Amino acid sequence: MRRNPKIVTEAMQSYSFSRRAWLLGAAQAGVGVMLAGRMAWLSVAQNEHYSILSEKNRVDSTLIPPRRGWIVDRNGVPIANNRTDFRVDIIPDRLRDEDRVLVLLQQLLRLTPEDMARVRIDLDRAAGFQPVQVAERLDWDRFAAVSVRLPELPGVQPSRAFARHYPAGAAVAHLTGYVGVPNAEQFKATRDGLLVTPGFKLGKDGLEKALESRLRGKPGAKRVEVTARGKLVAELATKPDVPGKTAKLTIDAGLQEYAARRLGTNSGSAVVIDCRTGEMLCMVSVPAYDPNSFSDGISHLEWQMLSEDDHVPLMNKVTQGLYPPGSTVKPMNALALLDAGVAADQRINCTGAMRVGTGVFHCHKRGGHGPLDMKGAVAQSCDIYFYEMVRRLGYDRIAPVARTVGLGEKFELPFTTQRFGTVPDSAWKLRKYKDEWRVADSLNASIGQGYVLANPLQLAVMAARLASGRALQPSILADRVHRDAPALPYQSEHLQLVREAMWGVVNGGGTGGAARLLIPGVQIAAKTGTAQVRRITMAERRSGVLKNGQLPFKLRDHALFVCFAPADNPRYAAGVVLEHNGHTVRNLDTPLIGRDIMTYLLDRERALASLAEVEPTWGGDIATRMAATEAAYRAARNPPPAAAATKTDAVVPSDAPAVERATDLANQTQAALATNTVAEEGSTEGTERDE
Amino acid sequence: MSGRTVPEGLARLPWKVILLVIAIGVFGQVVLYSAAGGSFSPWAKSQGLRFFVLLAGAVAISRVPERAWKAGALPAYALILIALVLVELLGAIKGGSQRWLDLGFIRLQPSEFMKPAIVLACAKFYDMLPAGETRRFSAIWPAALLIGLPAAFVMKQPDLGTGLMICAGGATVMFLAGIPLRLFVGGALAAAVAIPLAINFVLHDYQRNRILIFLDPESDPLGTGYHISQSKIAIGSGGIWGKGFLNGTQSHLDYLPEGHTDFVFATMAEEWGLVGGCLLILAFLLVIRWGIDVAQAAEGRFARLAAAGLATTIFFYVAINLMMVMGLAPVVGIPLPLVSFGSSAQLTVLLSLGILMSIDRQNRRRPRW
């Protein structure tokens, strides 16, 4: 306070009041303008922003998972389609009073204690926003029972969805792959609400995974007006989903299923290629899982059973399995020899064994074939002929031809996990093992053993290229067929000679006589092969080589087969590889399987009749055998593992570590054999059975 | 006089402002009708009835002569202060805080009446103060005490909004009475220092929360920030012309909390848009300007200070409420007068208008030269 305040009179006070009251009024008007301005800012400048928020409040949008595009074969027959599915899920975030809700659900849906235990485990593990499946494939009664009691079941979401269906089941498993619930990482990466919509599944393996963007489609939305407390006020227009696009394959669904059945109890694969276009007509790997049950999420027991099986049902052997091609490379060798100037009529005398340096190399025929020309050597699959010829030329002259016909090649196909093997030569060995190429390496490679590794698809491509004389590229999507394949850079007479030699394998008293077609006037050309997976010691050789039937499964020889038909005007080519088949059962051996697959393409009725005759001898069709295997497995695990059997979606895409390991192990066996080859023992074919 | 057919008393009423107030009140009832989902109950009907009864009361008390207000100012102030103490004591006995005084037939909220009472009391005090004393310390401390006592009790209830309004109303009168400006400037600076301290040490948790969330409402959109967020959504989504009568979704689907009381402006703005909002603001400004005009025209220090103070009290209601719903101020629980559902604020504002009309009547009787 000032010490000497100025004297204030009433007049001054009145004047001061007027001024200050005016000031106050002005300030109030100013605040009024400011408020109007603020309101204009909210309702005009930011109108759009707030309108969206208001709409988000008002409208509760539930996504409708889009119907997945079908996968159809070359004739439009569905390989993967959708069926209507009534299902019930729980959204953990919205679940209240868990115990009461689960008890009620168990009553309404008539769930088993195992199911309940699985749901509880899944609920414990689930990220709150991810729906946990309670039950699917419900009948209408049970679905309706839950639907009408929803107010008592907070967090429970019944929905009508479409479930993936594979009519051919396991026969197409490795072709299509399967679908499954997206995992939390996938959701976090995209923040796409569709990924946490109950009933939505995406491709986890095979074509389902590779073609995901094409097959998925766009979700629809069911829109309802809700209050802040979630009470439904009105149903708004529902936006329909846009189904995914259909993917048409070059596959022939009938052939695919036939081949899968015909392979029987083998652990093997078969590929058929159209010799005019390179289209893949079938691509089978057996045994396999049932993609229908995989897409539902499989139980722990099922998963354990599949991963313990020595027939590796989780591996797509067509693109992931690597095998020494064995004698199936001999027609290709012949082409390389011709190209290098070797005369076809030049004979080599096979005495049954041949000494190179300090080592002895044997022919599969103990007594030897006697003198053979090139066609005879291919037809009889004589090892000595090719040992001697390749010893003279060196394998570096062969390897480029091997690559040209498709060995070691990676094809442009929608499969993420292709293993493409090895076509070795001296430069490769120096690079990989820092070691020089030896004559023994050439000899081993000349009969498709040693360092040579190929997958079944490459063998089929090799057959198709030799048959057509063109550098065909395999294709599996109908809109990605490589029609204009250039001619192979070899003389057509040479190619013709090779084809004639392969004709001789079946029809000229060669090793593949069993594959002779029963269709009048049509002939098949082929080459058999056997790849040994163990070393035969000198001691064993002296006392008599053990028969495959005496050996444990893992030590039996692989059986391989490449062919094309008709021999004089090639239309179809195929490759069949049977792991550890050992040529023990005639009906389940490569020549007859190859013959029947070819027969299916040329005379379907005859092929089906043949199958009907032989299938019962190995326990019936795929589904029957799988059910029996599973029942036996369950019985063997007594008591059955507790209800901890949780469905899991984390299993086995083919690039999963478990499958990688299994594949690696199988392939390493071959590699180890190759690198350890000792000259004394050589590496020869086992006994190739003549017809 | 032209109004021979009209009784002289009726003709003398300030019809312009009465019609303006009726317009605001009726518009408020329209908004409440919509807020109830297109229904007169539970809000629009009772609010409407009360409005017209209270408006009639206001017109009636406009006949009370100014000197009666002057004489009654301090006793009324004292009575309300005692009521505030009683509320506090009852609260202490019953345990927990309390704002209401239940008289059996009516529940009174004494703090509400303190808003006009503090204005009248301060006006009376400066009216008694000789002009020469205005710049002395003796012109300040009694007023500060008059304001501080009730404000302290109200804030203890705790009711931050009403406490602030009592302070603001009293301070306005002090300002108009000619207290040196530098005190207000100094006071503002002191407040700038004191507010952060108060936030940290004096305020209750929920009050502190409201202020922190006001500063960043999106930090807690589903918790305490929910009110402000939803209110801004309602206003912002209304656009220029609004979504139309009965078409507001924020209010009808219960996303906007307190859509019929403190946040009634948001309910209105959603359906009537910027246009409705600006018209309402304009109407309030006109009423307040009329009040300031009444003050300017009044003779006698009490009448002037009281009129300007009461007009400013109404202004504070409107300004604080609108700033609150538009996210410019924390949520402090001040309703929008004449529009928000509720009897206390309606009563206070119409009482203030009645006193203003009474002063206006006094002004008009005085011959002008």
UniProtKB/TrEMBL annotation, chain A:
State its location(s). Answer: Cell membrane; Membrane
InterPro entries this protein is in?
Beta-lactam/transpept (IPR050515), Beta-lactam/transpept-like (IPR012338), PBP_dimer (IPR005311), PBP_dimer_sf (IPR036138), PCN-bd_Tpept (IPR001460), Penicillin-binding_protein_2 (IPR017790), TAT_signal (IPR006311)
Q: Where is this region: Disordered?
A: 670-691
Name of the gene encoding the protein in the UniProt record:
mrdA
Q: What is the lineage of its organism?
A: Bacteria, Pseudomonadati, Pseudomonadota, Alphaproteobacteria, Sphingomonadales
**Transmembrane segments in this chain: where?**
21-41
A GO molecular function annotation here is: serine-type D-Ala-D-Ala carboxypeptidase activity
Organism of provenance: Sphingomonas longa
Q: What is this protein called?
A: Penicillin-binding protein 2
- Report the residue ranges that make up the Penicillin-binding protein dimerisation domain in this protein: 64-235
TrEMBL record, chain B:
Catalytic reaction list? [GlcNAc-(1->4)-Mur2Ac(oyl-L-Ala-gamma-D-Glu-L-Lys-D-Ala-D-Ala)](n)-di-trans,octa-cis-undecaprenyl diphosphate + beta-D-GlcNAc-(1->4)-Mur2Ac(oyl-L-Ala-gamma-D-Glu-L-Lys-D-Ala-D-Ala)-di-trans,octa-cis-undecaprenyl diphosphate = [GlcNAc-(1->4)-Mur2Ac(oyl-L-Ala-gamma-D-Glu-L-Lys-D-Ala-D-Ala)](n+1)-di-trans,octa-cis-undecaprenyl diphosphate + di-trans,octa-cis-undecaprenyl diphosphate + H(+)
Transmembrane residue ranges? 17-36, 76-93, 137-154, 160-177, 184-203, 272-292, 304-326, 338-359
State the membrane topology.
Multi-pass membrane protein
The cross-references to Pfam families, in alphabetical order and at most eight, read: FTSW_RODA_SPOVE
Q: Where in the cell is it found?
A: Cell inner membrane; Membrane
EC category name = transferase
Q: In which pathway does it act?
A: Cell wall biogenesis; peptidoglycan biosynthesis
Q: Does the keyword Cell membrane apply?
A: yes
For this UniProt record, the keywords arranged alphabetically read as follows: Cell inner membrane, Cell membrane, Cell shape, Cell wall biogenesis/degradation, Glycosyltransferase, Membrane, Peptidoglycan synthesis, Transferase, Transmembrane, Transmembrane helix
EC number(s) recorded for this UniProt protein: 2.4.99.28
- What InterPro entries does its record include? FtsW/RodA, RodA/MrdB
Q: What does this protein do?
A: Peptidoglycan polymerase that is essential for cell wall elongation.
Family per similarity comment: Belongs to the SEDS family. MrdB/RodA subfamily.
Q: Which NCBIfam families match?
A: rodA_shape (TIGR02210)
- What is the protein name for this chain? Peptidoglycan glycosyltransferase MrdB
Q: Which organism is it from?
A: Sphingomonas longa
